[in-house]
Each structure stands twice: as structure tokens, then as C-alpha cells.
Amino acid sequence: MELDVSKVVQDCLNAINKEISNLKTLNIIVIGKSGVGKSTLINSVFRGNFTETGLGRPITQKIRKIEKNGYPLAIYDTPGFELSSSQQEAIKKEILSIINRGYTSNDINETIHCIWYCINVASNRTFDSSEIKWLEEFLRNENNRRVPIIVILTQGTPKNQALEMKALVEKENLDIAKVVPVLAQPKDFDGEYTAPAYGLDSLIAVMGEILPDELQKTLQNIQKVNLEEKKKKAYAAVAAAAATSFAEGAAPIPFSDAFLLVPTQVSMIAAITAIFGIEVNKSILTAIVSSTLGAGGATILGRTIVSNLLKFIPGVGSVAGGAISAGTATLLTTALGNAYISIMEMIFKGELKKEDLSSKEGKNLMTNLFKKQLEGSK
Predict the structure, then answer these.
(1) Which of 19, 123, 138, 149 lies in disulfide reach of 270, CB 3.0 to 4.6 Å?
(2) DSSP assignment, residue 9?
(3) 277 lies in which domain range?
């Protein structure tokens, strides 16, 4: 049975759109004084210049909700905490109301999943105990303990001061998830020295530890600072697809019927694409598929290139026209998934442009990456 490349591409597009549309919304409350760098932090962590999409709509008198259409993230931004004690008390009540409303909705898309409590290291030359006092009072309410709190030490320069402040906060033994010092953007000191950004990858790692399983794909889709976390989740998607391929090949699949593996591989590509949060169009997917499919191919790997590629797989040699066993099906799916991850990684790091995949060199790159993965399975 012949397989239409354009149909495989359309199936990939449909699967990617479905994967993304099924992502749950991550809801974060961000608290901190004015000038703490909340917008810079948010835009540095999440793709798409999230806070630049607008001022957000007010949901109470003081708190605004920032959303972007088709983007699975909502930020509840609180006003600066240099307000009067009565205003701060009112904000606490508003935050508690938002938390309770989300909790009682029984809808993960409405639930508050974590709180970022931001303290500016650069403006706190001495430790401000009022920050800790606010957290202590906030945590006395049992309902607030439903939501994990990450204390983020923003504008963390000099770094030794940020680490000292981290130690002081940790010494308070608050019921919080973690204290994370960060410098969201490189900071120039009079042209003599530039302090590099740091800590954002650690923030995402902490988020990955505290968020429920249903939000792990969402987190990886929207974050742009921790490549290793993306790769970890992407490799898990490949492992899941490989396990399915193994089951599909339990009864050896003739090459002529190898198209049965395609739905599994399409779902795998969709999952990896959603995890990396990289937009791909039909022409890019056509280049990727055709570079591994080949004209008239019977699987996403291509019957016309199978005889050349299978020699890289242990125990198969140059035999063509036989059957794909469970082990071979697993190796083929794994090689395809790992090659696709390599492509996504290069795009993520800026080493490759998406548009380059449509060129002859781009197609050769994908084919060579796939062959390299098969060679590595020896």
C-alpha cells in the first residue's frame, strides 16, 4: 500500500493542532513591589512576549488577569506592595477569593497552580523583614496552602548578595516550595562588565517539580529557558511511541504493511512539536516528512529507502522485502523521534532556521540525522 506524503503532512498538522488545543491552562499569581521586574521576568521565561499583549483585564479592583488568545497561560498580576496595610489586606482577600474560586470550580483550567512571590535583590540592600511578615500572615490561612509558593529573588546582582538573601529567607522555614535567585536579563555595569542572566532554568525545573502531571506539557510548551527539561519530556514522548511500535510489531509487519506504524509516529511528532512550542507549517512538515519518507514510500520512513537504512539495524542487515519485527519497529520509531528532537533543539538554540528545512541542505540534514540515529543503535 502506497502512502500519500501530503496526507501524512496533513495528519501531522491535525495532530499538532489537537495536541496544542488540548493543553491545560497554567494559572500563576505574581506578587511583588513595584519595580521588582515582574514583566521582565515573565517575558524572559515564557515565549511570545506575553505581558506585551496588553495590560490585561481587571478581575477585581486591584488585580488584573493577563491572557493571550490561544496561549495556555494566565498571569494574575497584583499591584505593588508598597501600599498601605489596609490596601495590602484587601489584596490578600482578593487573592484568597481567586484561589477559592478556582479550587471550587473543579476545573484545572481555572485553578491557581502556583504563586510567584518576587523580592528585588538589587533594591534591598538590607533584608526587608516585611516581605517575610506578609508571607507568614498569608500562609496562616489554611486555604492558601493549597497553592505552592516560589519566592523569586529578582535582579539578583551581585550574586553573592542574592545567595545571602536566599539563605535568610530559607532560615525562616516558611511553608514554601523553593527560593530561586534569578537575573532575568544580562545587566551592564557602566560598560565595564556585563553580568550574565541566570536562574531561569532553575525556576522552570522547580515548576516542573510542583505542577501536576496534567500541566507538564503546558509548562514545556510555553517556557523558553530550559532546553534540558524540554528534551526530557520529548524523549519521554519518543519512549512512549517506541513502546507502542513494539506492540504493533509484536506480530512481524511486512514492509508492504508498514504504514500501520504511521499514526504512532505522527502522534509522536505532534507531541514533540507541542513540547518545544515551535510553530511549524505545512511546507516545513513536508520537508521533514519527505526527507525520511521518499517518493512512493510505504511508511513515514519510506519503503524506497528501507533497503539502504535497515543495514544499520543489528540483526537485519541488508535484507529487504521481509518483515519489520517488534524490535525493528521500535528502533525505526526511536530513530525518527530522536532525529526530530535534534532538529527542534537546533531551532530552539538558533542554530537552524525553520525555513532552512525546506532547502535541499535541510532535507539532507534530516535524513543524515535519522541515519546517524540508526547507526547509533548498533
Answers:
(1) 19
(2) H
(3) 226-376
Tell me if 270 sits within 8 A of 237, measured CB to CB. no
| Res. 154: pLDDT tops 90 | yes
pLDDT tens profile 263-317: 888 999 999 999 999 999 998 898 888 877 543 333 444 443 444 455 555 555 4
Separation between Cα atoms, residue 367 and residue 322, nearest integer Å: 23
Please return the burial class of 336, using the count of CB atoms within 10 Å of its CB with bins 0-12, 13-18 and 19+.
Answer: buried
Which among 221, 153, 230, 210 is positioned nearest to 184, based on CA atoms?
Answer: 153
Single residue among 222, 257, 288 that ends a domain in this structure: 222
pLDDT number for residue 139? 86
Residue labelled with grid coordinates 489586606: 89
User: 38 near 81, Cβ under 8 Å?
Assistant: no
Q: Are residues 35 and 136 in the same domain?
A: yes
Residue 149 exposed, middle or buried by CB count within 10 Å (0-12, 13-18, 19+): buried
Is it the case that residue 35 has pLDDT exceeding 60? yes
Written as one letter, the residue type at 190 is D
